[in-house]
From TrEMBL:
Keywords: Amino-acid biosynthesis, Cytoplasm, Diaminopimelate biosynthesis, Lysine biosynthesis, NAD, NADP, Oxidoreductase. The keyword Cytoplasm applies. This is 4-hydroxy-tetrahydrodipicolinate reductase. One of its GO terms (cellular component) is cytosol. It comes from the Bacteria. It comes from Bogoriella caseilytica.
Amino acid sequence: MTHVAVLGAAGRMGQAVCHAVETASDLTLASRLDAGDDAATVAASGAQVAVDFTVPSATEANVHALIDAGVHAVVGTTGWDEDSLGRVRDHLQAANAGRAGAADPQLGVLIAPNFALSAVLAMRFAAQAAQYFESAEVIELHHPGKVDAPSGTAVHTAQGMAAARREAGLAPMPDATETALEGARGADVDGIPVHSVRLRGLVAHEEILLGNPGEQLSIRTDSFDRSSFMPGVLLGIRQIGTRPGLTVGLEHLLDL
């Protein structure tokens, strides 16, 4: 039985995670924390794994506190960049260097831009396809309560596509735009345009467009309810104890 703490438990995602943990036969909900609660207290609840669905301004500090407390972390909060990931990676390396005994298992942190299995597969398919198409763009669509743009999923998707294009030695994508309103061509993520839509009624959606002369490939993932993220969250909770160090992306836990 794995004991789990949920940070951001009062939020919509946090509530869904709490319900998923409570209904899983191999998991126990050890504590619920929200804004103003100290993540360092998680260990006192007996939690072995903490799930963070808070806000970008708080998540990194929460993860460092969990590492100091000896608790594995599964993080769905977005807003991470290479500098913040590097700090977590370094902290884990230092912490695990002092946890050599069997009584002190190596700590792991999973940071996933998206826990929906359809989104993880869409990102993987997009990276595989990117090398075969001259043009590629990403459109992400979310509810207006989302605080970051573009979404972490869209950034992760674009980065994977850009890496595949570089590895294939592709030239920059064609774009004859000379004049444009600021933002009209979206955000530039490693050379891939990423467009953000915020619209009432949406939950979480992404469309990847790839084009060649005479053909287009569209890859789309839609999450209509937050329950779509729960299988991925539970997978992370169950596996993070076997993955020391920092893991970025749920795809590393799947047999892809």
